[in-house]
Protein backbone atom coordinates (compact mmCIF):
# COMPACT_ATOMS: atom_id res chain seq x y z
CA UNK A 1 0.00 0.00 0.00
CA UNK A 2 1.29 3.36 -0.99
CA UNK A 3 1.54 5.65 2.03
CA UNK A 4 3.46 8.55 3.47
CA UNK A 5 3.90 8.01 7.16
CA UNK A 6 5.53 10.03 9.90
CA UNK A 7 6.32 8.10 13.01
CA UNK A 8 7.12 9.69 16.36
CA UNK A 9 8.67 12.77 14.80
CA UNK A 10 10.54 15.05 17.18
CA UNK A 11 12.42 18.24 16.41
CA UNK A 12 14.48 20.18 18.90
CA UNK A 13 15.95 23.56 18.08
CA UNK A 14 18.71 25.27 20.01
CA UNK A 15 17.51 28.75 20.80
CA UNK A 16 19.12 31.69 22.48
CA UNK A 17 17.37 34.33 24.45
CA UNK A 18 19.77 36.94 25.70
CA UNK A 19 22.74 35.02 27.13
CA UNK A 20 20.82 31.87 27.87
CA UNK A 21 20.79 28.94 25.51
CA UNK A 22 18.06 26.41 25.67
CA UNK A 23 16.39 23.74 23.65
CA UNK A 24 13.00 24.27 22.16
CA UNK A 25 10.98 21.20 21.29
CA UNK A 26 9.17 22.45 18.19
CA UNK A 27 7.67 19.07 17.33
CA UNK A 28 6.97 16.46 19.97
CA UNK A 29 6.12 12.92 18.97
CA UNK A 30 3.94 13.49 15.94
CA UNK A 31 2.66 10.47 14.01
CA UNK A 32 0.18 10.08 11.17
CA UNK A 33 -0.27 8.26 7.91
CA UNK A 34 -1.30 9.92 4.67
CA UNK A 35 -2.81 7.80 1.94
CA UNK A 36 -3.23 8.58 -1.75
CA UNK A 37 -6.51 10.29 -2.55
CA UNK A 38 -6.81 11.61 1.00
CA UNK A 39 -6.27 14.99 2.60
CA UNK A 40 -5.13 15.45 6.16
CA UNK A 41 -5.31 18.95 7.61
CA UNK A 42 -2.87 20.04 10.28
CA UNK A 43 -4.26 22.99 12.22
CA UNK A 44 -2.93 25.03 15.09
CA UNK A 45 -1.79 28.53 15.72
CA UNK A 46 1.42 30.03 14.48
CA UNK A 47 4.33 28.51 16.36
CA UNK A 48 2.65 25.18 17.03
CA UNK A 49 5.13 23.27 14.89
CA UNK A 50 3.17 22.75 11.69
CA UNK A 51 5.81 24.04 9.29
CA UNK A 52 8.53 22.11 11.07
CA UNK A 53 6.57 18.92 10.47
CA UNK A 54 6.17 19.91 6.82
CA UNK A 55 9.85 20.71 6.47
CA UNK A 56 10.88 17.39 7.96
CA UNK A 57 8.61 15.58 5.52
CA UNK A 58 10.07 17.61 2.65
CA UNK A 59 13.59 16.80 3.93
CA UNK A 60 14.43 20.44 4.47
CA UNK A 61 14.94 19.71 8.13
CA UNK A 62 16.34 16.61 9.83
CA UNK A 63 14.26 15.10 12.62
CA UNK A 64 15.88 14.92 16.06
CA UNK A 65 14.22 11.54 16.31
CA UNK A 66 11.48 9.58 14.65
CA UNK A 67 11.19 8.85 10.98
CA UNK A 68 9.44 9.51 7.72
CA UNK A 69 8.42 6.42 5.79
CA UNK A 70 7.36 6.18 2.17
CA UNK A 71 5.47 3.02 1.32
CA UNK A 72 6.48 1.56 4.65
CA UNK A 73 10.20 2.07 4.11
CA UNK A 74 12.34 4.62 5.94
CA UNK A 75 12.96 7.43 3.48
CA UNK A 76 16.49 8.20 2.42
CA UNK A 77 18.42 11.23 3.55
CA UNK A 78 20.94 11.45 0.71
CA UNK A 79 21.93 10.44 -2.76
CA UNK A 80 19.75 8.90 -5.40
CA UNK A 81 17.28 7.47 -2.95
CA UNK A 82 16.66 10.99 -1.67
CA UNK A 83 16.10 12.18 -5.23
CA UNK A 84 13.60 9.39 -5.73
CA UNK A 85 11.83 10.41 -2.53
CA UNK A 86 11.69 14.02 -3.69
CA UNK A 87 10.08 13.02 -6.96
CA UNK A 88 7.20 11.67 -5.00
CA UNK A 89 6.87 14.03 -2.06
CA UNK A 90 6.73 17.70 -2.95
CA UNK A 91 6.04 20.87 -1.07
CA UNK A 92 3.94 23.93 -1.88
CA UNK A 93 4.95 26.96 0.14
CA UNK A 94 2.96 29.77 1.61
CA UNK A 95 4.41 32.62 -0.38
CA UNK A 96 3.87 32.34 -4.12
CA UNK A 97 5.82 35.55 -4.66
CA UNK A 98 8.98 34.29 -2.99
CA UNK A 99 8.81 30.82 -4.48
CA UNK A 100 9.15 31.83 -8.13
CA UNK A 101 12.20 33.44 -9.67
CA UNK A 102 11.17 36.84 -11.04
CA UNK A 103 13.59 36.54 -13.96
CA UNK A 104 12.30 33.28 -15.36
CA UNK A 105 9.20 32.42 -17.30
CA UNK A 106 6.58 29.99 -16.08
CA UNK A 107 7.74 27.57 -18.75
CA UNK A 108 11.27 27.68 -17.36
CA UNK A 109 10.03 26.98 -13.84
CA UNK A 110 8.26 23.88 -15.05
CA UNK A 111 10.98 22.67 -17.40
CA UNK A 112 13.59 22.64 -14.71
CA UNK A 113 12.11 19.89 -12.52
CA UNK A 114 11.30 17.87 -15.64
CA UNK A 115 14.96 17.96 -16.61
CA UNK A 116 16.48 17.66 -13.14
CA UNK A 117 14.34 14.69 -12.27
CA UNK A 118 14.81 13.33 -15.79
CA UNK A 119 11.11 13.02 -16.35
CA UNK A 120 11.20 14.28 -19.92
CA UNK A 121 13.41 12.82 -22.65
CA UNK A 122 13.35 15.27 -25.53
CA UNK A 123 12.65 18.90 -26.28
CA UNK A 124 9.23 17.99 -27.65
CA UNK A 125 8.51 15.86 -24.61
CA UNK A 126 9.40 18.75 -22.29
CA UNK A 127 7.08 21.07 -24.17
CA UNK A 128 4.25 18.60 -24.16
CA UNK A 129 4.62 18.01 -20.43
CA UNK A 130 4.79 21.72 -19.57
CA UNK A 131 1.61 22.20 -21.57
CA UNK A 132 -0.05 19.31 -19.78
CA UNK A 133 1.00 20.58 -16.33
CA UNK A 134 -0.45 24.02 -17.01
CA UNK A 135 -3.73 22.52 -18.12
CA UNK A 136 -3.90 20.37 -15.01
CA UNK A 137 -3.74 23.50 -12.85
CA UNK A 138 -6.20 25.39 -15.08
CA UNK A 139 -3.73 27.88 -16.48
CA UNK A 140 -5.01 28.00 -20.01
CA UNK A 141 -4.26 28.69 -22.78
CA UNK A 142 -1.13 26.89 -21.64
CA UNK A 143 1.15 28.44 -24.26
CA UNK A 144 0.24 31.92 -23.11
CA UNK A 145 0.99 31.10 -19.47
CA UNK A 146 4.21 29.28 -20.30
CA UNK A 147 5.59 32.51 -21.73
CA UNK A 148 4.56 34.68 -18.78
CA UNK A 149 6.85 36.00 -16.07
CA UNK A 150 5.79 35.80 -12.44
CA UNK A 151 5.12 39.55 -12.19
CA UNK A 152 2.54 39.26 -14.93
CA UNK A 153 0.41 36.96 -12.82
CA UNK A 154 -1.77 37.20 -9.74
CA UNK A 155 -0.91 35.48 -6.47
CA UNK A 156 -3.42 32.75 -7.20
CA UNK A 157 -1.96 32.11 -10.64
CA UNK A 158 1.53 31.96 -9.17
CA UNK A 159 0.39 29.47 -6.61
CA UNK A 160 -1.02 27.36 -9.44
CA UNK A 161 2.39 27.45 -11.08
CA UNK A 162 3.95 26.36 -7.78
CA UNK A 163 1.51 23.45 -7.66
CA UNK A 164 2.28 22.53 -11.27
CA UNK A 165 5.97 22.61 -10.44
CA UNK A 166 5.38 20.29 -7.50
CA UNK A 167 3.52 17.90 -9.80
CA UNK A 168 6.22 18.01 -12.49
CA UNK A 169 8.49 15.29 -11.11
CA UNK A 170 5.50 12.99 -10.67
CA UNK A 171 4.57 13.78 -7.08
CA UNK A 172 2.19 11.42 -5.33
CA UNK A 173 2.09 13.44 -2.13
CA UNK A 174 1.85 17.20 -1.70
CA UNK A 175 2.70 19.01 1.49
CA UNK A 176 0.94 22.35 1.24
CA UNK A 177 2.03 24.71 4.02
CA UNK A 178 -0.65 27.40 4.31
CA UNK A 179 -0.95 27.49 0.53
CA UNK A 180 -3.62 30.18 0.41
CA UNK A 181 -3.04 32.27 3.51
CA UNK A 182 -1.20 34.97 1.55
CA UNK A 183 -3.76 35.12 -1.23
CA UNK A 184 -6.74 37.40 -1.53
CA UNK A 185 -9.77 35.87 0.12
CA UNK A 186 -11.60 35.92 -3.21
CA UNK A 187 -9.15 33.57 -4.92
CA UNK A 188 -8.39 31.20 -2.06
CA UNK A 189 -11.22 28.87 -2.81
CA UNK A 190 -10.13 28.44 -6.41
CA UNK A 191 -6.69 27.22 -5.36
CA UNK A 192 -8.13 24.93 -2.69
CA UNK A 193 -10.61 23.52 -5.19
CA UNK A 194 -7.71 22.81 -7.51
CA UNK A 195 -5.91 20.86 -4.77
CA UNK A 196 -9.12 19.00 -4.04
CA UNK A 197 -9.56 18.07 -7.69
CA UNK A 198 -5.99 16.81 -7.97
CA UNK A 199 -6.47 14.80 -4.81
CA UNK A 200 -9.66 13.29 -6.17
CA UNK A 201 -8.87 12.83 -9.84
CA UNK A 202 -5.17 12.10 -9.66
CA UNK A 203 -5.27 10.25 -6.37
CA UNK A 204 -2.83 12.64 -4.74
CA UNK A 205 -2.27 12.53 -0.99
CA UNK A 206 -2.39 16.07 0.40
CA UNK A 207 -1.16 17.37 3.72
CA UNK A 208 -2.97 20.66 4.10
CA UNK A 209 -1.49 22.92 6.75
CA UNK A 210 -3.72 25.79 7.76
CA UNK A 211 -5.03 28.13 10.40
CA UNK A 212 -8.42 28.00 8.89
CA UNK A 213 -10.72 25.44 10.46
CA UNK A 214 -13.53 26.03 8.00
CA UNK A 215 -11.44 25.05 4.97
CA UNK A 216 -9.75 22.30 6.98
CA UNK A 217 -13.16 20.77 7.53
CA UNK A 218 -14.32 21.26 3.98
CA UNK A 219 -11.19 20.04 2.22
CA UNK A 220 -9.87 17.27 4.42
CA UNK A 221 -10.81 13.82 5.55
CA UNK A 222 -8.99 14.05 8.83
CA UNK A 223 -7.91 16.93 11.07
CA UNK A 224 -4.91 16.94 13.35
CA UNK A 225 -4.75 19.73 15.93
CA UNK A 226 -1.31 20.80 17.13
CA UNK A 227 -0.41 22.81 20.19
CA UNK A 228 3.17 23.55 21.23
CA UNK A 229 4.51 20.80 19.01
CA UNK A 230 2.12 18.13 20.20
CA UNK A 231 -0.95 16.62 18.65
CA UNK A 232 -3.75 17.37 21.09
CA UNK A 233 -6.67 16.13 19.03
CA UNK A 234 -7.28 14.22 15.83
CA UNK A 235 -10.11 12.58 14.02
CA UNK A 236 -12.45 12.68 11.05
CA UNK A 237 -12.91 16.32 10.05
CA UNK A 238 -16.59 16.64 10.84
CA UNK A 239 -16.11 15.02 14.20
CA UNK A 240 -13.27 17.33 15.25
CA UNK A 241 -15.18 20.43 14.17
CA UNK A 242 -18.65 19.48 15.36
CA UNK A 243 -17.68 17.68 18.53
CA UNK A 244 -14.26 18.94 19.67
CA UNK A 245 -12.91 17.18 22.74
CA UNK A 246 -9.85 19.20 23.63
CA UNK A 247 -10.14 22.65 25.18
CA UNK A 248 -7.64 24.05 22.73
CA UNK A 249 -9.68 22.87 19.74
CA UNK A 250 -12.72 24.52 21.29
CA UNK A 251 -10.73 27.71 21.67
CA UNK A 252 -9.57 27.57 18.07
CA UNK A 253 -13.15 27.11 16.95
CA UNK A 254 -14.19 30.01 19.13
CA UNK A 255 -11.56 32.18 17.49
CA UNK A 256 -12.62 31.34 13.98
CA UNK A 257 -14.24 34.22 12.16
CA UNK A 258 -17.93 34.12 12.87
CA UNK A 259 -20.06 37.08 11.79
CA UNK A 260 -22.24 36.89 14.88
CA UNK A 261 -19.43 36.46 17.30
CA UNK A 262 -16.96 39.20 16.60
CA UNK A 263 -15.68 41.96 18.78
CA UNK A 264 -15.34 41.41 22.49
CA UNK A 265 -15.77 37.66 22.42
CA UNK A 266 -13.04 37.21 19.84
CA UNK A 267 -10.70 39.36 21.88
CA UNK A 268 -11.33 37.19 24.91
CA UNK A 269 -10.79 33.97 23.01
CA UNK A 270 -7.64 35.43 21.57
CA UNK A 271 -6.31 36.15 25.04
CA UNK A 272 -7.11 32.62 26.14
CA UNK A 273 -5.39 31.18 23.10
CA UNK A 274 -2.34 33.24 23.89
CA UNK A 275 -2.36 31.86 27.41
CA UNK A 276 -2.81 28.29 26.15
CA UNK A 277 0.09 28.51 23.74
CA UNK A 278 2.29 30.50 26.10
CA UNK A 279 5.48 28.95 27.35
CA UNK A 280 6.31 27.23 24.09
CA UNK A 281 8.95 29.78 23.37
CA UNK A 282 9.36 33.41 24.13
CA UNK A 283 9.70 35.95 21.40
CA UNK A 284 7.95 34.15 18.56
CA UNK A 285 7.08 37.22 16.59
CA UNK A 286 3.74 36.78 14.97
CA UNK A 287 2.35 33.96 17.01
CA UNK A 288 -0.89 35.75 17.65
CA UNK A 289 -0.89 38.24 14.85
CA UNK A 290 -4.18 38.96 13.19
CA UNK A 291 -2.98 37.06 10.14
CA UNK A 292 -3.37 33.86 12.11
CA UNK A 293 -6.94 33.93 13.22
N1 LIG B 1 15.22 27.03 12.54
C1 LIG B 1 14.64 27.27 13.73
N2 LIG B 1 15.42 27.59 14.81
C2 LIG B 1 14.87 27.83 16.01
N3 LIG B 1 13.55 27.75 16.27
C3 LIG B 1 12.73 27.43 15.25
C4 LIG B 1 13.23 27.19 13.92
N4 LIG B 1 12.18 26.89 13.12
C5 LIG B 1 11.09 26.97 13.88
N5 LIG B 1 11.40 27.29 15.16
C6 LIG B 1 10.47 27.43 16.29
O1 LIG B 1 9.72 26.23 16.36
C7 LIG B 1 8.38 26.51 16.71
C8 LIG B 1 7.47 25.95 15.67
O2 LIG B 1 7.62 26.70 14.49
P1 LIG B 1 6.84 26.37 13.15
O3 LIG B 1 7.01 24.92 12.85
O4 LIG B 1 7.26 27.33 12.13
O5 LIG B 1 5.33 26.62 13.60
P2 LIG B 1 4.04 26.92 12.72
O6 LIG B 1 4.32 26.53 11.31
O7 LIG B 1 2.95 26.11 13.34
O8 LIG B 1 3.78 28.38 12.84
C9 LIG B 1 8.27 28.01 16.86
O9 LIG B 1 8.38 28.32 18.23
C10 LIG B 1 9.45 28.53 16.07
O10 LIG B 1 9.89 29.75 16.59
MG1 LIG C 1 4.15 27.73 9.59
Descriptive report:
The protein contains eleven helices and ten strands. The chain is of the alpha/beta class and 293 residues long. The strands form two sheets. Strands 6-7-8-3-9-10 form a six-stranded mixed beta sheet, sandwiched between helices. It has a four-stranded antiparallel beta sheet with strand order 2-1-4-5. Strand 9 and strand 10 form a beta hairpin. Helix 3 packs parallel to helix 6, helix 6 packs parallel to helix 7 and helix 10 packs antiparallel against helix 11. It starts with a strand and ends in a 16-residue tail after the last helix. Magnesium ion binds next to helix 1.
List the helices and strands and how they pair.
Elements: E1 4-17, E2 20-34, E3 39-43, H1 50-57, E4 65-70, E5 73-74, H2 79-88, E6 89-92, H3 106-116, H4 123-136, H5 142-146, H6 155-167, E7 173-177, H7 185-201, E8 205-210, H8 213-219, E9 222-227, E10 230-236, H9 237-242, H10 247-255, H11 264-277
Helix pairs in contact: 3-4, 3-6, 6-7, 10-11
Bound molecules: adenosine-5'-diphosphate and magnesium ion.
Amino acid sequence: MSTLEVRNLVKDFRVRSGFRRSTLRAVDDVSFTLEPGKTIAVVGESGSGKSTVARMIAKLETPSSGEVLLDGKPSATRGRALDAYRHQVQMVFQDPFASLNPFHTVGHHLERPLRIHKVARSRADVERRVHDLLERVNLTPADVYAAKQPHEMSGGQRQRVAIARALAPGARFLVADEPVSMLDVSIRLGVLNLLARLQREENLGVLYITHDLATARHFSDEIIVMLRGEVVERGPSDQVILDPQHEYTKLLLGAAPDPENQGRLRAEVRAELAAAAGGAVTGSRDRFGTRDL
